[in-house]
Design brief:
Elements lengths: L7 H13 L1 H8 L3 H22 L5 H14 L17 H5 L1 H8 L4 H20 L8 H25 L11 H18 L1 H6 L7 H4 L8 H4 L3 H15 L3 H10 L3 H21 L14 H10 L3 H20 L7 H14 L1
Helix pairs in contact: 1-2, 1-3, 1-6, 3-6, 3-7, 3-8, 4-7, 7-8, 8-9, 9-13, 9-14, 9-15, 15-17, 17-18
Bound molecules: the ligand CC(C)(C)CN1C(=O)[C@@H](CC(=O)N[C@@H](CC(=O)O)C(=O)O)O[C@H](c2cccc3ccccc23)c2cc(Cl)ccc21.
The ligand CC(C)(C)CN1C(=O)[C@@H](CC(=O)N[C@@H](CC(=O)O)C(=O)O)O[C@H](c2cccc3ccccc23)c2cc(Cl)ccc21 binds next to α2, α3, α8, α9 and α15.
């Protein structure tokens, strides 16, 4: 039979995309046809790798080899992984991963090489951190580079190879990396309660040890002011990435690529703003309200509107921290926010 353009496997891939993240799946499906399938497959490959890294039910030595070899399975027609823990949300994706491989092997060679190279490097980084603690802020930046910064570096290559964005994206590793770090750090700050309950530690010792004696104190200690001071210092760290994020967004020419990149970044600053100085973060998963997320998705469709969104949340954060002059990071936060506000 004639291979239909959108084969059964491709439809299956978009169904998996829908089940992994509803709102973001829509944004991916609106990407320019030259890039859409590559980004969809890239997203699913990364989800597959992330599902293995997250699975606490897999023996650590077996997990290490799975992470290191994952990029080779992209070229193994028929390969799937049926040993995920049942509670892993995306276990079904790995059970039918052969569908992703089928479509991966149909992508342009430049897309395939980019996706498999990033997957290889990410697997190596994840394997390294299986038995390494995130002690220093440098470790934190390195870990986030492996799990999120590399994603951005890969995306910049895909954008260039598509012909939709220019060569400058190939020489923009630092700001591409910052795009990933900003998203990942926002997630790590927001998810601290559920991560610690799962015994996952992503907050660097270098920061929390200034405020509490044990990392669990962050969510358990009665002295919530110390935990909030720690939370605020974590938020302060993310501000270093904002200039790179703004610069990266200013370079994008294709409208669908812009939306794909701008929506997660604006969601991230909204998340950080919701977390700053908010002791609820230490007790539950603080999410931005549905209405606010919809407003951001609606507004973040051009560069000037994105700047307005960044300015709005910087002002909100300045107002929030102004109520806590006793916080050790108070001066640094006020100065950092004012500097960013002036330069935007
Ligand atoms: C870890 C992560 C931040 C890289 C995950 N990541 C993202 O967070 C998604 C957004 C997402 O998945 N949102 C989900 C949130 C959720 O599931 O919690 C939603 O439902 O809205 O966006 C990123 C992403 C999008 C656009 C540009 C990027 C540049 C650098 C790095 C990542 C970039 C992403 C792009 C690709 Cl191709 C793959 C993964 C990601």
């Amino acid at each position: 039979n004639i291979k239909m353009k959108s084969s059964g496997e491709l439809k299956k891939c978009y169904q998996f995309l829908e089940s992994t993240s509803r709102s973001f799946a829509t944004v991916i499906q609106e990407i320019h046809p030259k890039l859409r399938n590559a980004i969809c497959i890239y997203y699913l490959v990364l989800r597959g790798l992330d599902t293995i890294e997250d699975d606490m039910g897999i023996n650590i030595n077996y997990k290490r080899s799975l992470l290191l070899d994952f990029h080779t399975h992209l070229y193994e027609i028929g390969w799937s992984f049926e040993e995920s823990s049942p509670e892993e949300k995306d276990a079904p994706l790995l059970m039918e991963f052969h569908v992703v491989i089928e479509e991966f092997l149909k992508l342009d060679r430049a897309y395939q090489d980019t996706i498999s190279d990033i997957t290889k490097q990410m697997g190596e980084g994840m394997a390294k951190y299986l038995d390494k603690r995130i002690n220093t802020v440098e470790d934190w930046n390195e870990y986030c580079h492996y799990v999120a910064g590399l994603v951005g570096i890969g995306l910049s290559k895909l954008f260039y190879y598509s012909g939709l964005e220019d060569k400058s994206f190939l020489d923009s590793e630092k700001i591409s990396n910052s795009m990933g770090l900003y998203l990942q750090k926002a997630n790590i700050i927001r998810d601290v309660n559920e991560d610690l309950l799962d015994d996952r530690r992503f907050w660097p010792t270098e920061i929390w040890s200034k405020h509490v004696n044990y990392i669990r104190d962050i969510i358990l200690s009665k002295q919530s002011d110390k935990s909030v001071h720690c939370l605020n210092e974590m938020c302060l760290n993310t501000f270093d990435h904002v200039p790179d994020v703004i610069e990266y967004l200013s370079m994008i020419r294709d409208p669908s690529v812009f939306n794909f990149c701008a929506i997660p970044q604006t969601m991230a600053i909204a998340t950080i703003s919701a977390c700053l100085n908010n002791e609820l973060v230490l007790k539950e998963n603080v999410k931005i309200r549905k209405g606010e997320a919809i407003r951001i998705m609606y507004e973040a469709n051009n560069f000037n509107n994105c700047l307005k969104i960044f300015v709005r949340y910087l002002d909100t954060m300045k107002a929030k921290i102004s109520k806590s002059p006793e916080d050790p990071s108070y001066k640094l936060l006020i100065n950092k926010i004012s500097t960013l506000r002036t330069n935007i």
